[in-house]
């Protein structure tokens, strides 16, 4: 791998991870207060197997999201030129992320197709997290697309 490609890759990975963590935090804080997650998580049977919001690992979630952001960046890197160089690339990025990580998730989690099929969770509980995830992924996709496109334009000059 040439030095230029390595530099481009590391910049891409850093931007992707940073935007992922920031939008995760912003969306999480907004929707935790707006949707009353603390009450839902403590009273809804759908979330009975979730950890308490006060547990150490849940509090460390933003740090763990650095790894998740880096993993998603690695998975999407082979397609990054197609996404960044297209007119509505941010919308393509949103569609891929939203479709594969939420709706198409292979785990039977609330909001996923598998969750609808295999759990007894009420529809309302499946819908609870959709606005947050949709907002976060839209915000992430647009911000990352704009930043990455600008970075690539500067690098090519």
What can you tell me about this protein's structure?
It is a single chain. The protein is mostly helical. The chain has 9 helices and no strands. Helices cover 76% and strands 0% of the residues. The chain is elongated. The protein starts with a helix and ends with a helix.
Summarize the model shown.
This protein has 157 residues and is mainly alpha-helical. Helix content is 76%, strand content 0%. The chain has one domain.
Largest sheet: number of strands, sense, barrel closure: none
Proportion of β residues?
A: under 5%
Distance between the termini: 21 Å
Low-confidence stretches: none
Number of strands: 0
Characteristic key phrases:
157 residues; mainly alpha; 9 helices; 76% helix; elongated
Topology:
Layout: H1 3-35, H2 37-43, H3 56-59, H4 61-76, H5 80-84, H6 89-103, H7 113-118, H8 123-128, H9 130-156
């Amino acid at each position: 791998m040439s030095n230029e490609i390595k530099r481009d890759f590391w910049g891409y990975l850093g931007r992707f991870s940073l935007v992922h963590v920031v939008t995760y935090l912003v969306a999480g804080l907004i929707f935790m207060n707006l949707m009353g997650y603390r009450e839902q998580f403590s009273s809804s049977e759908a979330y009975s197997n979730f950890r308490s919001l006060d547990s150490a690992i849940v509090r460390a979630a933003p740090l763990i999201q650095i790894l998740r952001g880096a993993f998603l960046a690695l998975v999407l890197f082979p397609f990054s030129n197609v996404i960044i160089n297209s007119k509505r690339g941010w919308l393509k990025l949103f569609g891929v992320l939203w479709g594969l990580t939420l709706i198409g998730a292979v785990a039977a989690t609330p909001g996923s197709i598998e969750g609808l099929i295999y759990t007894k969770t009420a529809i309302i509980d499946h819908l609870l997290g959709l606005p947050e995830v949709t907002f976060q992924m839209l915000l992430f996709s647009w911000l990352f697309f704009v930043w990455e496109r600008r970075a690539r334009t500067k690098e090519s000059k």
